[in-house]
Amino acid sequence: SQQGEEDPQALSIQEGENATMNCSYKTSINNLQWYRQNSGRGLVHLILIRSNEREKHSGRLRVTLDTSKKSSSLLITASRAADTASYFCATYTTGGFKTIFGAGTRLFVKA
Amino acid sequence: DTEVTQTPKHLVMGMTNKKSLKCEQHMGHRAMYWYKQKAKKPPELMFVYSYEKLSINESVPSRFSPECPNSSLLNLHLHALQPEDSALYLCASSHPGLAGGPDQETQYFGPGTRLLVL
């Protein structure tokens, strides 16, 4: 199985609701990042959280990191139809060159 | 300028063809990446150049050959591909870490080249 497993695989919510996605990983990391991808296009960086940080905010996004549980969560508050996309976590492993993406969560926000 | 450009946007090629994908960035990034992404799957890292030094994912077949002519350009040469190589190929760039290795700071992705191998 790969570093960066995410759940749920798919999430459907109403506009205005909050969306929470989770990511788990297996090895020590330097940092963890969240990306968004619309319809098979390029990925857009959302937020980076370092291994010594526990929580970070950016606009409607809130990311937490629990290194003891090797997990992270992404919360999108007050979701909009434009938030419909796939969301991936990505970890960079300590001492290596590898960036490993999680399986991703497909979010659908209904207007 | 925070843009990574990729050409072509779409490519259809036969299994005996030789083609190249191109990627360019002008953000002064010294790390550039090639990813392969199949439908409904996450991107998989193929190659990394950091300060023009190559790191390879050992599982990538030799029919894929990367080239970094300078710090702004990245090519992926394709030869004798198979139908299962059909995918979205993404290029990205970032600032490498202080040690010269590709410490993962924010990666900026291009829009990708959608490749179909017949």
Describe the structure in brief:
With 111 residues, chain A is an all-beta fold. Chain A is built from no helices and 11 strands. In chain A, a hairpin with a 2-residue loop joins β6 and β7 (61-66).
> How many DSSP-defined strands of chain B?
11
Put simply, the count of helices of chain A is: 0
DSSP summary, beta strand count of chain A: 11
Low-confidence stretches of chain B: none
Oligomeric state of the chains?
A: heterodimer
Q: What is the radius of gyration of chain B?
A: 14 Å
Bulk shape of chain B: globular
**What is the percent of helical residues of chain B?**
under 10%
Helix content of chain A: under 10%
Can you summarize the main beta sheet of chain A? 6 strands, mixed
Q: What does the average pLDDT of chain B come to?
A: 89
**SS strand fraction of chain B:** over 45%
Class derived from helix and strand content of chain A: mainly beta
- Largest sheet composition of chain B: 7 strands, mixed
Along the chain, the helix and strand elements of chain B come as EEEEEEEEEEE
Strand content of chain A: over 45%
Q: What is the distance, rounded to the nearest whole angstrom, between the alpha carbons of the first and last residues of chain B?
A: 36 Å
Mean pLDDT of chain A: 89
Residue windows where pLDDT falls under 50 for at least 5 positions of chain A: none
Shape descriptor of chain A: globular
Q: How do the strands and helices of this protein lay out in sequence?
A:
The complex is a heterodimer of chains A (111) and B (118).
Chain A: E1 5-7, E2 10-14, E3 19-24, E4 29-37, E5 43-50, E6 55-58, E7 61-66, E8 71-76, E9 85-93, E10 99-101, E11 105-110
Parallel strand pairs in A: 2-11
Antiparallel strand pairs in A: 1-3, 3-8, 4-5, 4-9, 6-7, 7-8, 9-10, 9-11
Chain B: E1 4-7, E2 10-13, E3 18-25, E4 31-37, E5 44-50, E6 53-56, E7 64-70, E8 73-79, E9 87-94, E10 108-109, E11 113-117
Parallel strand pairs in B: 2-11
Antiparallel strand pairs in B: 1-3, 3-8, 4-5, 4-9, 5-6, 7-8, 9-10, 9-11
